[in-house]
Amino acid sequence: MLDYRTPASVAAAHPVVEGGGFVLGLGGGPRRLHPTIVNLNVEPFENVDIVGDAHRLPLPDNAVDAVHCEAVFEHLRDPEDAAAEMFRVMKPGALAFVCTPFMQAFHAYPSHFQNFTLMGHYRLFERAGFRVVEHGVCVGPSVALSDLVATYITHYSPRVVRWLLRAAWSVLSRVLVRPLDRSLARRDNAHLMASTTYALIENLVTRAGEADPPQFSSVRRWRQPSAAVAGRRRRVTLLRGRCTTPGPTSTPASAFATPPQEGNAGFESASGLANYWATQGTAVRRQRRDQARQRARRRNLTLR
User: Fold this and answer.
1) Bigger pLDDT: 229 or 231?
2) Region 2-10 average pLDDT
3) Number of domains, the chain
4) Domain boundary at 218, 248, 282, which?
5) In this predicted model, what pLDDT tens digit does every residue of 129-149 receive, in sequence order?
6) Beta strands 90-101 and 196-203: pairing type?
């Protein structure tokens, strides 16, 4: 059956397939998408040129000019490792077109570990070091509905009428349901129930003198906390008893005359800081109790 792919996804795959050079078909076979594509698969199917694992590609660094990968990442045990391997073997500036299911039923080859939302697909490759040039819906929600209902009929409908339901739904979905994706798949909210999503990604160019782009396992989006936040974290740590700062068991009352400064200045021990915050807590609770009593008095006067 036709899957009514979006024009955007077809256009995104074109520079990868027709770009020339060493184009790796990751997970390709037994069908060869283009005569120049070199297919790699875990099984020696027809039209498979390289037998290997996507988690450990049997290729040297910076050897591939482009990668075409369709309906593969849902079958990978560790998709992060496979994305990092793609980054390793691709040349700087090389493009890859990756299409992965979202709203599809379980289909084992050899197993089925996960599907990807549009944003999950984006984040997978972004954290691997790629620049996501473009991403969107490849196959729309009508095809997803058609395939899910067909799977439901095949596995859960009564056997007596199963063949009849399958035939009826096949005709109905082919004529009325699946063609709806000609318009629905182009909508802004098509990703909510898309059958598959795609991403056109680029291996970031490494300039001379710069470090290599970070791999998936080492990328962390870290923001340095502000001075106030860092101070609060230190005070909380002290209150939880994790501080081993030496000092006397008690601190004079004069040490608590001012609030704690940044870096815990003004306190000689953790116990002194704890006593300060205990005193402050009592004062706050007393203030809130007085405010509650005042509100209650005002309500009583209003009722009268």
Assistant:
1) 231
2) 93
3) 2
4) 218
5) 999 999 999 999 999 999 999
6) antiparallel
